[in-house]
Every structure is written in structure tokens, then in C-alpha cells.
């Protein structure tokens, strides 16, 4: 299990990290706050090479990575995205909530965002993004 946090950009030492990875790997990407074009440019060849040799799973990909995955077809090589972080809003508590949504939840609710409930008040949360937010799950077909 590898957890990344902060930014994926020109200052990230991705080459050093990927050089140490051997075998199947699960990436937790919930704490990646920012990704710029140079980060994407450096990330794609590394994840593509690694996923060509080993089973790669990605869990809780962050909002920033979802935005990139929806416009960059090979953002995760041949890795399998299991879940992503998604923005919701609790109108009762007046709070923004970011919660994990699985591939299976999206597949089970193809015409609407998956239903989530507030941990505090238990009321249903409102999805707080465009309907196309989960498109990368559907486009990847895995």
C-alpha cells in the first residue's frame, strides 16, 4: 500500500518512489490535493510502466485526480480504480463532505450519483458536482 499526499507536480520525486515499487501495489490517493500538467506528464509514463508489469489498484483517488482522469484517458495506465473521493453537501448541517464512492456504487446508480448520508445528522447528502464527475469510471470500463 502506497499513500501519496500533497501535490503531483514538477517537484514531486515520483521516479524515486516508482523505482522502489516491485510487485502488485495499491495506491491510496485521497490526500493528493493538487495535480498540474507537469505532474501528469511525469506520472503517466511511470504508472503505465508499473501497471504493465504488476497489478495496480487505486483507491480513493482525490478530487484533483478525478478531474484529470475525466480528460486524460490513460491517467492510471492499466491500473484499476476501485474508488474515488466525491464532494457532497449536507443542507441540514451546512457542511461540505468529501466521501469515498466505489466503482460498484456508481455502477449500481448509473443515472444519478450514489446516495450518501451525513455522518452527523444521518440525513441524505446532496451531490455537489456535475453529473459527469464519475465519467472516468464508465470510460475505463474496468
Structure write-up:
The chain is α/β, with parallel strands linked by helices. It has two domains: 1-81, Transcription Regulator spoIIAA, CATH 3.30.750; 88-98 and 105-136, no CATH class. Helices cover 30% and strands 30% of the residues. It is built from five helices and seven strands. It starts with a strand and ends with a helix.
> Radius of gyration from the CA trace?
16 Å
> What share of the residues lie within helices?
25-40%
CATH-level-4 superfamily name of the largest domain: STAS domain
Percent of sequence in beta strands: 25-35%
Unreliable stretches: none
Query: How many β strands by DSSP?
Result: 7
Q: Output the strand order for the largest sheet.
A: 1-2-3-4
Enumerate how many helices there are, as a single number. Answer: 5
What would the principal axes of the Cα set say about the shape? Answer: elongated
Structurally, the number of domains stands at 2
Q: What fold name goes in the CATH topology slot of the largest domain?
A: Transcription Regulator spoIIAA
Instruction: Provide the succession of SSEs.
Output: EHEHEHEEEHEH
Characteristics:
three-stranded antiparallel β-sheet; 5 helices; single chain; 30% helix; Transcription Regulator spoIIAA; four-stranded parallel β-sheet; alpha/beta; 142 residues
In short:
The chain has 142 residues and is α/β, with parallel strands linked by helices. Helix content is 30%, strand content 30%. It folds into 2 domains: 1-81, 2-Layer Sandwich (Transcription Regulator spoIIAA), CATH 3.30.750; 88-98 and 105-136, no CATH class.
Amino acid at each position: 500500500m502506497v499513500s501519496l499526499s500533497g501535490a503531483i507536480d514538477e517537484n514531486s520525486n515520483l521516479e524515486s518512489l516508482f523505482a522502489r515499487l516491485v510487485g502488485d501495489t495499491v495506491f491510496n490517493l485521497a490526500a493528493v490535493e493538487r495535480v498540474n500538467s507537469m505532474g501528469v506528464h511525469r506520472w503517466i509514463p511511470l504508472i503505465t510502466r508499473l501497471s504493465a508489469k504488476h497489478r495496480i489498484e487505486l483507491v480513493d483517488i482525490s478530487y484533483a485526480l478525478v478531474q484529470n482522469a475525466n480528460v486524460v484517458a490513460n491517467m492510471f495506465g492499466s491500473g484499476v480504480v476501485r474508488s474515488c473521493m466525491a464532494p457532497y453537501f449536507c443542507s441540514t448541517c451546512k457542511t461540505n463532505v468529501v466521501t469515498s464512492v466505489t466503482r460498484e456504487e456508481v455502477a449500481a446508480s448509473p443515472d444519478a450519483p450514489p446516495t450518501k448520508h451525513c455522518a452527523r445528522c444521518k440525513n441524505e447528502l446532496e451531490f455537489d458536482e456535475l453529473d459527469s464527475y464519475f465519467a472516468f469510471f464508465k470510460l475505463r470500463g474496468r
